[in-house]
Amino acid sequence: MPYITSMINRDETVRAAIRRLHGLRIMRQDPWECLISFICATFANIPRIKGMIQNLCQHFGSKITHGAIQVYGFPRKEVLADASIHELLDCNLGYRAKYIKKTSQSLVNSEFNLDTLRKTSYEEARELLLCLTGVGEKVADCVLLFSLEKLEAFPVDIWIRRILQTHYRGHFNIPNLEQRYMTPRLYKAFNDFGRQYFGRYAGYAQEYLYAEYRSS
DNA sequence: ACCCAGGAATTGT
DNA sequence: ACAATTCATGGG
């Protein structure tokens, strides 16, 4: 078994996922695109997230022509920082519009450069991401994992929570497990468990579990 | 019509 | 500190 999968091969649940999805990859996306995309992703389903991103590209991206085919690139941060809330609302962003404008402005004003975070530690990069409006723990962990090469990041969304509660119930003792929505306390409990249990490549374990057991 | 969504910020206790 | 409540809206 390859190195990474052998490192997360801790039990039969994840082993079954690895067997079926062997070869699964994690993206190394552009950090800016990744960040805005996951701010859009909060409290939305995947078809809608696709729509929001497509709207952003069509309204604010530059046109790219490949022969007869035309696509729109992802908007630059300066463009989104200068966009009006009204224009952003036209992209069906809802309450996310103000988060995207604020975060874009923060990054334009160069409080820090996202691309430098690849050379920053997991802990410090996470702290910095959490300073941005619209970025909580889950969004920060997704950006760390899918663009900043922090493979120990372990994002906990509603699906991962269900999967952990179903398949790893005996591994943690968390009060108020019946709560419908994620609380900071619950997030920390699931996130700590994932990183400690699966180790340095916990993010791969998260993705194997998500891809195998998310059902809908 | 009803319920949910790859949550985070804000407000109340 | 920590627990409710609010937030906009498309998709199933």
Topology record:
Layout: H1 3-7, H2 12-21, H3 31-40, H4 46-60, E1 63-66, E2 69-72, H5 77-82, H6 85-89, H7 96-108, H8 122-130, H9 137-146, H10 158-167, H11 184-198, H12 202-213
Helix pairs in contact: 2-12, 3-9, 8-9, 11-12
The chain binds a DNA duplex (13 and 12 nucleotides) through residues 38-39, 41-49, 51-52, 89, 92-97, 99, 133-139, 142, 155-160, 181-185, 187, 210, 214, 216.
What class, by secondary structure content?
A: mainly alpha
User: Which regions contain 5 or more consecutive residues with pLDDT less than 50?
Assistant: none
Can you count the beta strands?
A: 2
- How much strand? under 5%
Helix content: 55-70%
Mean pLDDT: 95
Strand order of the biggest β-sheet? 1-2
N- to C-terminal distance: 30 Å
Helix count equals 12
Shape: globular
Largest sheet: 2 strands, antiparallel
From N to C, what is the helix and strand string?
HHHHEEHHHHHHHH
Q: Which radius of gyration do the C-alpha atoms yield?
A: 18 Å
